[in-house]
Amino acid sequence: MILVLNLKTNLYKEGILKYEHMIHDKEVIILPQYPYLLLFRNGKYQLGSQDVSKFKEGSYTGEVCAEALKHIGCKYAMIGHPERKEHFNEDVKDFRMKIQNTLDNDMIPIYNVSETLEEYNTDNELKNIELQLEAIPDYVNYIMVSYEPSWLMGEKDAQIDYEHVNKVLMKIKEWLMERNINHSILYGGGINTSNIDDLKELKIIDGILMCTSALDEETFNYIYNKVKE
Questions:
Q1: Average pLDDT in the chain
Q2: Does residue 115 carry a catalytic annotation?
Q3: For 193, which of 24, 140, 161, 224 is 20 to 30 Å away at the CA?
Q4: Is 71 assigned a catalytic role?
């Protein structure tokens, strides 16, 4: 089972070096902040970026393009995280451009499909999920798609609606299969030591995306061992 670790804007140099030591022999995909990408070089882990520019190159100060990430060893780029939508007003058009740039540089997109609490309560036909999937070009050979209920992110005592999660993941899988797109399906949001066994029971899940829970060594090691059983 795949395990992706999104560190967000947490940890600085000393903490990052300790974290690299902790996961050095672990088979995970690690997504640190941009300044620390080069500190993850020789472990069993694989390296990815938390984001990527929608622009290929040019006068876009502050952006980091896919080709630059590729050349420092990134194999993955995460795209469409709920926080990019909330704080930076990114949308499906932006994500499609980012996915295309990632694929053009032989990297694998980790595309986040998210859902707000309001959408969870009202969007019974999962129209919003379908809309987000439209960011994926038909010619994609392989992509990772992660579903994250945004209201559960960072919740230590999250109450996960497993039936709903399974419904959403089936929707995503069917959409990808209809287009003959090879894929892995991940789940993220409210993951902890109490619910990892129940999440593993959802056979449709190919992997887990950890964020807040990835920062605590004891929690990480427990979940890692469960995922890799």
A1: 95
A2: no
A3: 24
A4: no
pTM of the entire structure? 0.95
pLDDT bin (cut points 50, 70, 90) of residue 155 is low
Neighbours of 61 (CB within 10 A): 4
List the CATH code of the domain at 2-227. 3.20.20.70
Where are the chain's structural domains? 2-227
Distances (CA, A) of 168 to 18, 68, 149, 209: 36, 34, 10, 16
Q: What pLDDT, in 10s, does the model give residues 27-64?
A: 999 999 999 999 999 999 999 999 999 999 999 999 99
**Token pair 């129940």: residue:** 198
| 142-149 and 108-115 beta bridge pairing | parallel
Task: Choose, from 20, 81, 83, 115, the residue flagged as catalytic.
Answer: 81
65 has pLDDT over 70 = yes
Six-digit token pair at 62? 């502050």
DSSP codes of every residue in 75-144: -EEEE--HHHHHHH---HHHHHHHHHHHHHTT-EEEEEEEE-HHHHHH-TT-HHHHHHHTTS-TT-SEEE
pLDDT for 73: 97
Question: Rounded to 5 degrees, what angle do the CA atoms 14, 20, 23 make?
Answer: 145
Rg value, the chain, Cα: 17
Please pick, among 20, 90, 115, 148, the residue that the annotation labels catalytic.
148
